[in-house]
Design brief:
102 residues; mainly alpha; Cyclin A, domain 1
Length: 102
């Protein structure tokens, strides 16, 4: 597959800056995204190839303007929806519930 997400071997992207003090997760929601991945993966709902594929089918513009863990959330939601585990309406209801809690 040769898409926007596949930068392997490309030149001219600049040096990779490594911050020794960088935290593993920048925000609380990133921790939750990681936890959801682990839980759903451990339950056998999907495999790593399915997870990656669903990131690779993101619209290129959406991919470029979203963060690493937003890619994960996109893939998880798409897989769970496609497999009939969780509907878009259920996800939206939870988002609305969380927004109301703040």
């Amino acid at each position: 597959m040769n898409g926007i997400h596949d930068c392997g071997g490309m030149q001219g992207l600049g040096a990779i800056r490594i911050d020794k003090d960088e935290q593993l997760f920048a925000t609380e929601w990133e921790k939750r995204a990681f936890g959801m991945f682990i839980g759903v993966f451990a339950a056998g709902v999907f495999n790593v190839d399915e997870f990656r594929y669903n990131i690779e089918v993101m619209d290129p513009a959406h991919y470029l303007e979203s963060s690493y863990y937003e890619h994960w959330i996109f893939s998880l939601e798409k897989m769970l929806n496609d497999k009939g585990v969780l509907s878009h309406d259920e996800v939206q209801a939870r988002i609305n519930q969380l927004k109301g809690a703040h």
